[in-house]
């Protein structure tokens, strides 16, 4: 897809209506199984953790339970660490990195912090390897009151009682080649605006909250992950995906203002991770491990700095 090639759905310069959304939806096909890839892993984890069904997605003939994994030794006197993955269903390592963290590392935090992990926020999109939900909405721009996205609304309900007790929130994402080949062109077509090509960064980076930046926290995450995979450099403009790089591998967004998942709590420490799975320098296993490593580094920093924020 280039800026000179119109998206195959819609009329250039005109936002989509219901007919265009329906046409887009008719072209989405199931490519993998949420039950086989995610629910089966969660079933194994029930022996060691509490599993909570916090909602259900219903899209025509498709129905998906939304599951969260919680510390079995939950204590009201401990802070909460929130981990979210699969807000964008196509970002595979976000889902599997969250599950890997639980399987391999969660036990080390028993009695120190309450863990709450929602590993696959958008299972419909996970199965179709897509960014949007079935209504052509981006859940990661929909975390706000009266959210139009079922996925976002369900997660907001889950964390509402805990919002002010969350110490650290790590939201696991990917930036992929398909962002430029498919998803950003689709977004421009849906909204009736010109598509302006961008550059996909080669490597891992994180997104801090510009309203409440925590540079030392972000630096600690980057330092841990660079032992696993490479960190994205800035482009020729000193930017990563159009935002100034404020430190190696770090950019900033106004998380809550944009309706992003990482902005849904009052956590003093929050970050969005971005792995690049299409790099010839990174395997799928490295990407999953990078995500799990980022979670550990984020929680470790937050626990070591309670009360200093």
From TrEMBL:
InterPro entries, sorted: AstE_AspA_cat (IPR055438), Peptidase_M14 (IPR000834)
Record key words, sorted: Hydrolase, Metal-binding, Zinc
Organism: Dyella halodurans
Protein family per UniProt: Belongs to the peptidase M14 family.
Gene3D superfamilies: Zn peptidases
Superkingdom in the source lineage: Bacteria
Source taxonomy: Bacteria, Pseudomonadati, Pseudomonadota, Gammaproteobacteria, Lysobacterales
Record-linked PROSITE patterns: PEPTIDASE_M14
Cofactors, names only: Zn(2+)
Protein name listed in UniProt: M14 family metallocarboxypeptidase
Stretches assigned to the Peptidase M14 domain: 30-309
